[in-house]
Amino acid sequence: MSNSDRVVLALGGTGTVGSGIVKALLDRGFRVVVVSRDSKRLEKLKSFVSPSSSGNLITLKGNVGSEEEVEQVKQAVVEAVGKVTDIVSSLGFSWWQGGPPHTQTLKELHWVLETLVLSTFVSWKAFFPLVRDDPRGTYTFITGGAGDKLLMPGTGFLTVGAASALAFCQVLREEYPEVPCKFNQVTINAGVTVPDRMAPGYLNHLDLGETVAALVERRSSSHAVFTLECASDLKAILLEGNM
Ligand SMILES: NC(=O)c1ccc[n+]([C@@H]2O[C@H](COP(=O)([O-])OP(=O)(O)OC[C@H]3O[C@@H](n4cnc5c(N)ncnc54)[C@H](OP(=O)(O)O)[C@@H]3O)[C@@H](O)[C@H]2O)c1
């Protein structure tokens, strides 16, 4: 099956991380569906991707973090593209530094968990059946390294959310070891940003997108975990695929 026959559902495709992935997937010839709660972000994404491949980008407005709304989104996705072959999930937010736990509210912790892990669970539960039985299918989760430690003072809830997202990915690998569709977990132990905001310790979202698109293209015969610390890790994964 060539890339042009594959349809990737990119959850979080309007985000910093997701937009780089969407552009790279389109550049490799995939058709890509992106769902966002915000029409303006979808318009911005359309003008960001390469003009030559924008015809393969399908955008839909919707909320994939709500159990009720995700079913409507799923129906709209299937109506728009027929079959989905691969899913990339980069739901969440870029950064949180609201302060130490004693200064925080339960509402804030709910919001962090909802955005980082509950939306990941709700959308996985709805969309995984679309790809589950396809041995050529992939489901890729983008996660952050903040789950391992407190990155700096005041980022505690980010650690709680990121750790939950990492644990969820691990649970999926262990609960479904033999499922035909393979899970990729891409854990990024660095910041990710756009080219004109690059600084030490950050990955360019375009380079990250290239690497994630290569992983989707390559497929895998088993569930896999990839840890990215710096730009050379991105190159190493790309080179591995060329060998
Ligand atoms: N940026 C970094 O420095 C960095 C570093 C390491 C790891 N990561 C990981 O990468 C992931 C994404 O980060 P990011 O920087 O790309 O964040 P971002 O720019 O804030 O984008 C988040 C994306 O998630 C989507 N989203 C969240 N909840 C949703 C829902 N209920 N329904 C539909 N879409 C929803 C947003 O869509 P809308 O258009 O609807 O808002 C947006 O596309 C996070 O899990 C983060 O842990 C990021």
Polypeptide structure, described:
- The chain has 243 residues and is of the alpha/beta class.
- It has a single domain, classed as Rossmann fold (3-Layer(aba) Sandwich).
- It has seven helices and nine strands; from the N terminus they run βαβαβαβαβαβββαβα.
- The strands form two sheets. Strands 3-2-1-4-5-6-9 form a seven-stranded parallel β-sheet, sandwiched between helices. Strands 7-8 form a two-stranded parallel ribbon.
- Helix 3 runs parallel beside helix 4 and helix 6 packs parallel to helix 7.
- It starts with 6 loop residues before the first strand and ends with a helix.
- The mean pLDDT is 97.
- NADP nicotinamide-adenine-dinucleotide phosphate (NAP) binds next to helix 1, strand 2, helix 4, strand 5 and strand 7.
- NADP nicotinamide-adenine-dinucleotide phosphate binds next to helix 1, strand 2, helix 4, strand 5 and strand 7.
Question: Which spans have pLDDT < 50 for at least 5 consecutive residues?
Answer: none
Q: How many helix segments?
A: 7
Per the CATH scheme, the topology name is Rossmann fold
Number of domains: 1
Order of helices and strands: EHEHEHEHEHEEEHEH
